[in-house]
Design a protein that fits this description.
CATH superfamily of the largest domain in chain A: Butyryl-CoA Dehydrogenase, subunit A, domain 3
Number of domains of chain B: 3
Protein name (chain A): Acyl-CoA dehydrogenase
CATH topology of the largest domain in chain B: Butyryl-CoA Dehydrogenase, subunit A, domain 3
Helix content of chain A: 40-55%
Number of helices of chain B: 10
Strand order of the largest sheet of chain B: 2-3-7-5-4
Order of helices and strands of chain B: HHHHHEEEEEEEHEEHHHH
Largest sheet of chain B: 5 strands, mixed, barrel
Domain Acyl-CoA oxidase/dehydrogenase middle (chain A): 119-198
Radius of gyration of chain B: 21 Å
Distance between the termini of chain A: 47 Å
Strand content of chain B: 15-25%
Structural class of chain B: alpha+beta
Largest sheet of chain A: 4 strands, mixed
Shape of chain B: globular
CATH topology of the largest domain in chain A: Butyryl-CoA Dehydrogenase, subunit A, domain 3
Order of helices and strands of chain A: HHHHHHEEEEEEEEHHHHHH
GO cellular component, one term (chain A): plasma membrane
CATH class of the largest domain in chain B: Mainly Alpha
Helix content of chain B: 40-55%
Shape of chain A: globular
Strand order of the largest sheet of chain A: 1-4-5-8
CATH superfamily of the largest domain in chain B: Butyryl-CoA Dehydrogenase, subunit A, domain 3
CATH architecture of the largest domain in chain A: Up-down Bundle
Largest interface: A-B, 28 and 32 residues
Number of strands of chain A: 8
Radius of gyration of chain A: 21 Å
Distance between the termini of chain B: 47 Å
Domain Acyl-CoA dehydrogenase/oxidase C-terminal (chain A): 225-382
Oligomer: heterodimer
CATH architecture of the largest domain in chain B: Up-down Bundle
Keywords (chain A): FAD, Flavoprotein, Oxidoreductase
């Protein structure tokens, strides 16, 4: 099937099969919860499109990287949610590469049909960008591990069933050694999840306390002490994710709609339309970088610097688009950010999500390897040391 | 291994232009007087003519090489690595594009271009807003002025596109018949103002064909100018990295300071972003189809200000040396400052894009 026919088929599916209320939520930059994500995942699964990034024998689609890129783009163009990434794009590739047959049998089907929800237990209060300094301990006790420690910034922990977790199983001279990857059900006794109040008035991150949490040794992925290399394998998938420019295209379209709907002839609209042109040019550049990166991967060519460059340029561009949304709406909505009559202060003002997204979006330059870390990496290649 | 820029159009043309420009720049650096630099640029043009550069886009039937935009792009990409102070884009691309749309009269002139006997620079309507051609019987006359157009040594004619009764006209004017005033641009390229006072001109073509060729010429100009910007950024980045790797202050190389490393990375991101845009547009040029107009315009809108931001930062990273005429990187920075003003500045482009 040629690209255009493929695109048309996907578009038709997205527009007819994705529930209108979910598309409306995406279109206004709303916060997606487990309910929306899993509904959409179930629909994709039933069509056979649940896991485009997996090998066919595990339920993949057999699409080329190029087709997967088109899939991501069409989802974004049609205001459909992107696929929830933690199980599907982060953990599953590690399980497929390093997990036991039993682990694959147990965990992959629930990820594929969207019935089991995963979150990532990596960061800790004293291990942020410097992840290798993590301290959560897992002590072997017979056939179990007993886990003690704290995880932080854990997205979706409040609605997840499972957490894939990096823990320290032994003290080694090198900090990257002695780390293991455990799959922990969140309903295990000894786990408590506390929401973190974030600046955007959304609930998405949590602190997860693990106090004498007992998990069987069979919950460990791969070898004991090799967790860091699995984690790195997973992070590479996360970085590859930046070659996916679909979220940028989606946000650009929404920003454009927002500005076009402002009163014609208003000076603010004119100024914002001008700013948007610059951002559109940057999006065009990033799209080309992403396309080339995919070509390079498909042809086994080295990727070089591109993921760091795209992380830097892409996160800045997304923030600029979100700031444009702030400027379009802030004069009105910044003065009515929270509703006193709502228990959670949730505002129902149309467009309020632009303010929330501006605030939430500050995280883009912090997570996924902060932009400063990316600059350190790039500087090493530029200066040769 | 420290950073080296990868050309978008590697090959013989790129290599020979890059080598030529590097040698030319070494000499430029030694010349303190504007007149000396001007004579140097004139000699460079003689050599460029011997190398056949003005004939690259002239069709083979007229004695040229029969190349296309990608060939001139390779040439300017190489030349821009050392801010070669020659008007390659107007002379090697704009003029042949306009002449090819000008029927038999244009073809005869193209032959002269290939032989090197005709040395022609273009005057586009935006260079000369008040310029007007009028018909007097069979003869045509020009009145008005053009500012800041390219200049060649031994200039024979100006190829003028301007408003006229009956539609936009393309005319050839003898250089000796116009009043010329010579300048050196901010980036060291030769330029001139021309004024016309009932000056005799030969009409080559008029109307829609001229309009269409002007669109083509402007697009090619914007594309090639941005290609020069990317090449100049790449070379300037190499030199900035080299400078920071060798310059020692406080007992250590500047490259060991994180603040400077991060600023250099920001330059690199500007460069890679501009390069991605040009790679995308180059694909369209190589396919031989017209550029997607909006994309080309967005690229120029972006790269003009990006080139300036890059230039300012490259100067800062060279410290006091960044303010001297000594460094090649500084000549590259000055070349980059010109990009915004060539072939449609960002304000004009934004206005047009928003009106579309």
């Amino acid at each position: 099937m040629d690209d255009e026919a493929f695109r048309a088929e996907l578009r038709d599916f997205c527009l007819t099969q994705c529930p209108p209320e979910i598309r409306a939520l995406v279109a206004r930059n709303g916060k997606l919860g487990r309910r929306e994500w899993s509904t959409w995942q179930r629909i994709l699964f039933e069509r056979g499109w649940g896991a485009p990034n997996w090998p066919v024998e595990y339920g993949g689609t057999g699409w080329t990287l190029h087709q997967r890129h088109i899939f991501d783009e069409v989802l974004a163009e049609c205001d459909c949610p992107p696929q929830y990434h933690h199980g599907l794009r982060h953990l599953a590739p590690v399980l497929i590469a390093y997990g036991s047959e039993e682990q694959k049998r147990q965990h992959l089907p629930g990820i594929l049909d969207g019935s089991v929800w995963w979150c990532q237990g990596y960061s800790e209060p004293d291990a942020g960008s410097d992840l290798a300094s993590l301290k959560t301990r897992a002590v072997r006790d017979g056939n179990d591990y007993v886990v003690d420690g704290t995880k932080i910034w854990t997205s979706h922990a409040q609605e997840a069933d499972m957490m894939y977790t990096l823990v320290r199983t032994s003290q080694e001279p090198k900090r990257q050694q002695g780390i293991s990857l455990l799959l922990i059900p969140l309903n295990t006794p000894g786990i408590s999840v506390t929401p973190i109040r974030t600046i955007d008035n959304w609930h998405h991150v949590n602190q997860v306390f693990l106090d004498g949490v007992r998990v069987p040794a069979s919950a460990r992925v791969g070898e004991e002490g090799q967790g860091w290399s699995y984690g790195k394998y997973l992070l590479q998938h996360e970085r590859l994710g930046v070659a996916n420019t679909a979220p940028i295209i989606g946000l650009l379209n929404r920003a454009r709609r927002l500005v076009e709907e402002m009163p014609a002839g208003s000076p603010r609209r004119t100024a914002l339309r001008q700013r948007l042109l610059r951002l559109e040019a940057e999006a065009l550049a990033l799209r080309d970088m992403g396309r080339r990166a995919l070509d390079d991967i498909m042809n086994d060519r080295p990727l070089g610097n591109v993921s760091s460059v795209m992380k830097l340029a892409g996160s800045n561009l997304m923030q600029s688009l979100e700031e444009l949304g702030l400027d379009a709406t802030g004069r009105r909505l910044a003065f009515r950010f929270r509703d006193i009559d709502d228990a959670n202060g949730k505002s129902t003002e149309p467009g309020i999500e632009w303010l929330q997204n501006f605030l939430y979006g500050r995280a883009r330059t912090i997570y996924g390897g902060s932009n400063e870390v990316q600059k350190n990496l790039l500087a090493r290649t530029l200066f040769g040391s | 291994m420290a950073f080296t820029a990868t050309p978008l159009l590697p090959g013989d043309l790129f290599d020979s232009a890059a080598k030529f420009a590097a040698a030319a720049d070494a000499r430029t650096a030694e010349l303190a007087k504007v007149r000396e630099r001007d004579e140097h640029a004139a000699r460079l043009w003689e050599q460029a003519t011997e190398l056949g550069w003005p004939a690259i886009m002239v069709p083979e039937e007229q004695g040229g090489i029969g190349g296309g935009i990608p060939d001139v792009a390779a040439l300017v990409e190489g030349g821009a690595r050392a801010a070669l102070p020659l008007p390659l884009v107007p002379a090697c691309a704009i003029v042949p594009i306009l002449l090819q749309a000008a029927g038999e009269a244009g073809q005869a002139t193209l032959g002269g271009l290939a032989e090197g006997t005709a040395r022609i620079i273009p005057v586009l309507p935006e260079d000369a807003p008040g310029l007007r051609a009028t018909r007097q019987g069979a003869a045509w006359r020009l009145d008005g002025a053009a500012e800041g157009v390219a200049r060649l040594p031994g200039l024979t004619q100006l190829l003028v596109a301007c408003a006229a009764e009956g539609g936009t006209a393309l005319l050839l004017v003898e250089a000796s018949a116009a009043t010329l005033r010579e300048h050196e641009r901010l980036d060291g390229q030769p330029s001139l103002d021309a004024s016309f006072d009932g000056t005799a001109a030969t009409l080559l073509a008029q109307g829609e064909a001229v309009e269409a060729s002007l669109v083509q010429a402007r697009d090619a100009g914007a594309f090639l100018c941005c290609m020069e910007a990317v090449a100049a950024m790449g070379a300037a980045l190499e030199q900035t990295v080299g400078y920071l790797n060798t310059r020692v202050q406080f007992g250590q190389t500047l490259a060991s300071f994180q603040a400077l490393r991060h600023r250099t990375v920001e330059l690199y991101v500007i460069y890679e972003t501009a390069r991605a845009l040009m790679r995308h547009l180059l694909e369209q040029a190589e396919a031989g189809t017209p550029w997607a107009a909006r994309e080309l315009s967005l690229a120029k809108l972006h790269i003009g200000p990006a080139a300036r931001a890059f230039a300012k930062e490259a100067i800062q990273l060279h410290g006091g040396m960044g303010l001297t005429e000594e460094l090649a990187a500084v000549r590259l920075a000055k070349r980059l400052l010109l990009v915004e003003f060539e072939y449609g500045d960002s304000i004009t482009r934004a206005e047009a894009l928003l009106a579309a």
